[in-house]
Amino acid sequence: MEIPEKYDANEAEARWRERWEADQIYAWDPSRPREETFVVDTPPPTVSGELHIGHVFSYAQQDLIVRYQRMLGRNIAYPMGWDDNGLPTERRVQNVFRIRPSRELPYDPEWQPSADRGPKEAVEEVSRLNFIEACERVCEEDEQAFEALWRQAGLSVDWKLGYRTIDAHCRRTAQLSFLDLHERGQVYQTLSPAMWDADFATAIAQAEVEDREKPGAYHDIRFAIEDGGELLIATTRPELLGACIAVVAHPDDERYQKLFGKTAVTPLFHAPVPILPAAHADPEKGTGILMVCTFGDAMDVEWWRNSGLPLRQLIGPVGRIVPAHWGEPPFQTREPEAAARAHAELEGRTVKQAQRRIVELLGDDGSLVGEPRPITHPVKFYERGERPLEYVPTRQWFVKLLEHKDALLEQGRKITWHPPHMRTRYDNWVEGLNQDWCISRQRFAGVPFPVWYPIDEAGAPDFERPLLAERERLPVDPLAEPPPGYGPEQRDQPGGFAADPDVMDTWATSSLTPQITSHWATDPGRHERLFPADLRPQSHEIIRTWAFYTIVKAWMHEGQIPWHHITISGWILDPERKKMSKSKGKVMTGSELLSEHSTDAIRYWSGRARLGVDTVLDPSVFKQGRRLTTKLFNASRFVLGQLEDSGADLGAVATNEIREPLDLAYVARLRGLVERASGAFERFDYAGALQATEEHFWEFCDDYLELVKLRSYAEQDGAGRHSAVATLLLALRTFLRLFAPFLPFVTEEIWSWRFGDGGARSIHRESWPCLAESDDVPAPAQAESFACAMEVLRKIRQTKTQAKRSLRWPVERLEVRGEAGPRAALEAALSDVLSAGNADPEACKVAQGAAPEGERFSVCATLSEQAD
RNA sequence: AGGCACGUAGCUCAGUGGGAGAGCACUACCUUGACGCGGUAGGGGUCGCCGGUUCAAUCCCGGCCGUGCCUACCA
């Protein structure tokens, strides 16, 4: 095969991508047994339209491990899924098309989403199904972009194993999971205050909550005490005054002890509320006495639950103040009319607006003492939300977690974490759980609950007796299909049924990715072969969601761990050390960087980064990768060129012809590399393998190649030449395969020239280098020959550089002094040293003598007056 | 506030109980018989600070400082 002079990475990479796809070299073979299989539980990226280099970085790291395993001969099951459920998708669709879903509107088959509607036009309301269609359309476009990126990045995915979390198979799996957990008593429904995002108007789970430091202010508000006197409440949420159900202070707080049992009266609303001791009141904070509202925070919820006091819900599902009938329970008041007047001022306002207004009212009323005192404090947000969470009493489905903490910690310990300290994050999360998993979302684009409720003759749904779908009929859409035993005309009729209107948390589906790939729901035989998976690669911020929930599900359904190993990638940081996905301004897309620097160079950069370690985006590392690629190309060209140019039959040289002392010593080094790189990969330490390989490769080029260059193309076709060529070929075959996971394109290109039969045998299906390949090469008598030869050659080079001569400049006379041991090792390889240094063998003297501290030889090279 | 991790050359990062390293950047030189998308040589670091263990500490232990993340913190 013709060996090109220059390497055109973009051309070669495009060519090999097509070839690999055509040859299906990454296909999983369903006929091979479990023990030969390596199953990857690949992260299904959230199809949200953002494509940045951070994605490429972490997915490339998985691919390194996968490619190593493939070269060990494993049958790889490496799927790629898309997570197109959930709020990120809905939000994008809402913004792109400027539409809002409505539960009331009927489906309009003519309607088409259009991104061209200008920002000035009103937001359009569309039916649930039209909205879902728009979501699917956006996802499909994004999925194509992602797939193109993954292909460009050289991921060795078997695309036939792909899935989308909204496809029928995934919906069936998620619904089956729900039914199974229901049967096992691990899910329950309850009507209680749930953490609520007002913009999305849905409940969310603890795992999706994050704290943000926000400015706020203490407002000191005067409450009357019914027997006379008053107290001062400090609150950051004056707008919840109407929701106040009690006033509490610490039981040991002497300032307030005498008030316990009395009744306070709120300003504006004149509501009588008990003054009670409560352990959670901190005497140091605010005024030491606080109002309990329904609901200001999690503490309020917990305290209310145990108090038996009424629920005065003020904040509605869209984050505005709802109507209230002051004077009627639960809104007891001493002055109904005044309370109603105050409430009218707030009703319909958002929380923020209501706060501003009530502060004015309290000021006018004389109940606000002094000016608000600004503070910053942590406020809980839905991680993708923009308004602080509220607590809204609603009916939600939960998966039991709190009673299983110990078991879940135990499951975590059965999994090998890479790096190990990442398990601590899992442990911290499990230990800190304070709620069960809320899995229902009051949204649209997601997997519906396979549940209906019977409606009694009075028209009220009976939530205690849910009607569950039959397993064989999954997936179902309860909003479109009737439950077993009912007809469609009975929907929402007395004596009929009502569908559960909610969809599941996106994690309720993505926590099943191992079972989705294994076809747990439909194919027990395949499940047996693919579950548990071997590897879960992911990033650290979703340990508490994806890793955690996946462990939960595998344990609840089958008492199993979902995978044996979990690898945690670090983040890519921009030059300001911010996470790439959060970078502001212009960020180069992954595709741009791959084209500019070549995929191999970008993968090299990924491979350099250790698991779990955040990495700054540094183009100098791309450059290093590019340089390595070029060097590999050129060195290979030289080695294989020896075979091409030769009149002699060097194509048949074999390892058993390796006899020269220098070559034997070099093969010994190469064997050390194979052991080191393989050991590193076995520990999932691809970066260690790359580092070892790269170091050895540069040594191979700069030192070994230079030493044997002349011998390898010596005029006479002798044993020395055969030994050199055989060693070069062994080394090249070894390096190419050691680099193949990192640099899949250039290694394949080179492999195809001679070893791969023009690409018919892909390097990616060759076997990983092993010691047996060089077992017929005897151990060197002088193991130090290579090191000694290099030391002398370096000193000759040094002399020439200092004399500002080229490296081929002839050496007229060479004197080497050293001890007997090193001398013997050197002399075994002396002829190679002399030819590499262009020194006259007749004028070379090696003798007994002292060497400088820490070195073996003292070398004196006298350069010729003139070049040859 | 607790936990985990990190702090090594100007930058990005390896590393080990005994010699401080790589790439980039920088300096000088080499016009190359695989490679100028190259090569050779070189300058540059009290390995965050303070203690301890040890014959010996950048590495092990303790404390401190700084950075990042995880968890907690809404009156």
Describe the secondary structure blueprint for this structure:
Elements: H1 9-23, E1 37-39, H2 53-71, E2 75-77, E3 81-82, H3 87-97, E4 99-102, E5 124-127, H4 128-152, E6 163-164, H5 168-183, E7 187-197, E8 202-203, E9 209-225, E10 230-235, E11 244-249, H6 254-257, E12 263-265, E13 272-277, E14 289-293, H7 298-307, H8 336-346, H9 351-365, E15 368-382, E16 390-399, H10 405-414, E17 416-418, H11 422-432, E18 437-438, E19 440-441, E20 451-454, E21 467-468, E22 497-499, E23 503-504, H12 506-510, H13 513-518, H14 524-530, E24 533-539, H15 543-558, E25 563-569, E26 572-573, H16 590-597, H17 599-608, E27 615-616, H18 619-645, H19 661-682, H20 686-712, H21 719-739, H22 744-754, H23 785-802, E28 811-818, H24 820-828, H25 830-837, E29 844-848, E30 857-863
Parallel strand pairs: 1-2, 3-6, 4-5, 11-13, 17-25, 24-25, 26-27, 28-29
Antiparallel strand pairs: 7-8, 7-16, 9-10, 9-12, 9-15, 11-14, 12-13, 16-18, 19-23, 20-21, 20-22, 28-30
Helix pairs in contact: 1-22, 2-17, 3-4, 10-11, 11-15, 16-17, 17-18, 18-20, 18-21, 18-22, 19-20, 19-21, 20-21, 20-25, 21-22, 23-24, 23-25
The protein binds one RNA strand of 75 nucleotides through strand 9, strand 10, strand 14, helix 7 and strand 15.
Mean pLDDT: 92
Which structural class do the helices and strands define? alpha/beta
Helix amount: 25-40%
Q: Largest beta sheet, briefly?
A: 7 strands, mixed
C-alpha end-to-end distance: 36 Å
Morphology call:
elongated
- DSSP summary: helix tally: 25
Radius of gyration of CA atoms, rounded to a whole number: 36 Å
Strand content: 15-25%
Number of beta strands? 30
Low-confidence stretches: none
